[in-house]
Design brief:
This protein has helices at 35-38, 62-71, 88-101, 119-127, 140-148, 158-161, 183-190, 228-237, 275-314, 325-333, 367-370, 383-389, 391-395; strands at 11-12, 24-33, 40-48, 54-56, 59-60, 109-113, 132-137, 152-155, 168-174, 194-205, 224-225, 240-247, 254-261, 318-321, 341-345, 355-356, 359-362, 374-377, 399-402. The chain is α/β, with parallel strands linked by helices. A hairpin with a 5-residue loop joins β3 and β4.
Length: 406
């Protein structure tokens, strides 16, 4: 893996972000490459001895993380995602909206906190054509893109903007809470934004089903790692009542919940959640994850070296699809790959034409002119989508290799 071997930034020890207890025990530790802004970083997960919340401790300061999110193209919120109908991101948004419609099929207003470039917000506006739809994001670049697409998106932090936003029938924070330094304070700021009879919707990674991969599931960006039990606990402490929950039980799935303000007349029977069961489920899955991660690099090498040896013999021109963190890790565990790489490919127009290490990054439209002999897909989450997008090329005879699938 590339990058300096010395950690570049200071980190701070904190008490539990949910209950404030300083009683915790370490349960997992990993060293990760955190991009050019942060360099290499040790991430340590601890389990709170009082409320069972799992969180990163120590961790970078809020200002350091804010700089990273704003400047690093591989940071969450910066990562380019295709907006095409039927793609992986679009399917996630459809599932989110289907869940929301089950609580309210005709909202008058919706606020998406942490809306990024507005991909979900745009789909929500089409799903609820009569609703007032608005977004908030701390990234000025993302907010400008969303506004350029005709969406009413505010630039700023929730702390600075909450008082002037008004109230909404639906308030969403998808893939946000796990990134927040003070998740309890964040939820308390959301509470007055929920109109009477309205709903709060949250989505976080399903931490009881972590996915082994070259890029850590328990990564440095995710400061907290929620289960259904700890998500309910933090909602209660913030003045909400959990009303519905949807769990994607596949590896790497998501946990989606709805909640109402405590005392609301729109109450549903709360779902049953056993905290002891959730804790044990998390710890068991973590043990399995640790074992799989130990053999992951060796499995990758065994799988891909056979292709590399053929490419070396044939003096082949190889393109690696993905100019991001996954490729940083791939080059780290498979040093033999670098000499056979001719170029990088990426859908993000901001990366195209720029160097990635010693290689130039091209877009998918350049593939034919590059006369490549093979493409290696360097992505986990979007591997299926990229492979399908490359269908015209592999049907025409170009070799396309997947890191994870067959």
């Amino acid at each position: 893996m590339s990058g300096n071997n010395q950690e570049k930034i200071a980190r701070t020890w904190i008490p539990c972000p949910i209950c404030g207890s300083e009683d915790s025990q370490p349960i997992y530790e990993t060293v990760q490459y955190a991009g050019q802004t942060l360099g290499r970083m040790t991430t340590r997960l601890v389990l709170c001895g009082e409320c069972d919340f799992v969180y990163n401790n120590p961790r970078p300061g809020d200002n350091t993380l804010a700089q990273y999110y704003e400047s690093d193209l591989n940071a969450s919120g910066q990562i380019y995602r295709e907006a095409s109908s039927g793609g992986a991101t679009d399917k996630v948004h459809q599932a989110q909206l289907d869940f929301m419609v089950g609580r309210n099929d005709a909202p008058g207003s919706l606020l998406d906190v942490g809306c990024g470039r507005g991909l979900f917000l745009g789909r929500a506006a089409r799903r609820f054509p009569g609703a007032e739809v608005a977004g908030l994001d701390p990234s000025n670049a993302a907010a400008e893109i969303a506004r350029g697409n005709g969406l009413a998106v505010h630039h700023g932090s929730l702390e600075n903007m909450a008082d002037g936003l008004g109230t909404f029938d639906m308030v969403c924070a998808f893939s946000v809470l796990e990134h927040v330094g003070d998740p309890l304070g964040f939820l308390k700021l959301l509470k007055p934004l929920v109109a009477p009879g309205g709903h709060l919707f949250l989505e976080v990674p399903e931490s009881t089903h972590p996915t082994p991969g070259l890029v850590e599931f328990f990564n440095f960006e995710h400061l907290g790692h929620f289960t259904a039990s700890t998500l309910r606990e933090i909602l209660v402490r913030a003045g909400f009542v959990l009303t519905a929950i949807a769990e994607d039980m596949r590896p790497g799935g998501r946990l989606v919940v709805s909640a109402v303000v405590e005392g609301s007349t729109e109450m549903e029977p709360p779902p049953r959640i056993d905290p002891a069961h959730e804790k044990q489920r998390f710890l068991t899955s973590l043990d399995h994850y640790k074992q799989e991660m130990k053999t992951l690099a060796d499995d990758f090498r065994a799988r891909l070296l056979k292709y590399i040896s053929r490419w070396v013999e044939a003096d082949a021109r190889i393109g690696v699809y993905g100019a991001g963190i996954h490729t940083e890790y791939l080059l780290g565990v498979l040093e033999e790959l670098a000499p056979v790489v001719y170029c990088l490919l990426d859908t993000d127009p901001r990366k195209q034409g720029r160097p990635f290490h010693q290689w130039k990054v091209y877009g998918p439209d350049d593939i034919v002119d590059l006369n490549l002999d093979a493409i290696l897909i360097s992505s986990q989450r979007f591997e299926d989508e990229i492979h399908e997008a490359l269908r015209p090329h592999w049907e025409a005879g170009l070799t396309v290799i997947r890191c994870y699938g067959e």
